[in-house]
Amino acid sequence: MSRDRGPRRRRKPEEAERVILAAARTFLAERPFREMTVEGVMVRTGLSRPAFYAYFRDRYEVVTRLLEGIGGLLFALDWRWLSAEEDEEEAREVLVDALRAGSRTFVEYGPVLRAIADAAGYDARVEQDYRYGLIERLVGAVASRIARDVEAGLSPSNIDPEETARALVLMTERYLLDAFGSPDRRPSRREMATVFATLEEIWVRTLYG
Description:
- The chain contains seven helices and no strands.
- It is mainly α.
- The longest helix has 33 residues, at 88-120.
- It is elongated and about 60 Å long.
């Protein structure tokens, strides 16, 4: 274990915080959240174990901070479809682009997102930020987009925007975590293409026929 510990040096506070977050992200890309300890993170940083508590209360707060960055990225990737006004053909194309971009984020950060989802089952703070923060915000944004499409005649008039959004978002989150959330294996290009195509088929058929 000690051979993994790099030389310690004094770091600026903001740099030390970034180093700890990067070490936590790397740890969770390789091993599940249940195995994550403060020592297991700090041994990768070149910082002392007590230094962890200068920036974070516990491992759950680290996970919450990681979620902030990844969640912001997901919204940024989806924003063109969530906010834009297009005709049906353009809406399909923009939606497919958003789904592919969001799915690639799960390919890159899947084990970390899986760890965050697991942590939400243990800690109310993480659950609040993940389930009732990120997921519910995304459900609301998708519901607003669906409602606009129904009103514009782009989507079927008999679908409920809120419930359809909730079903699509929760299904997609679970599906992508199952496909890309394991730290033990990397998906092949063929597997990724199949997952992307499946999601696109479900979303496009549901929303645009």
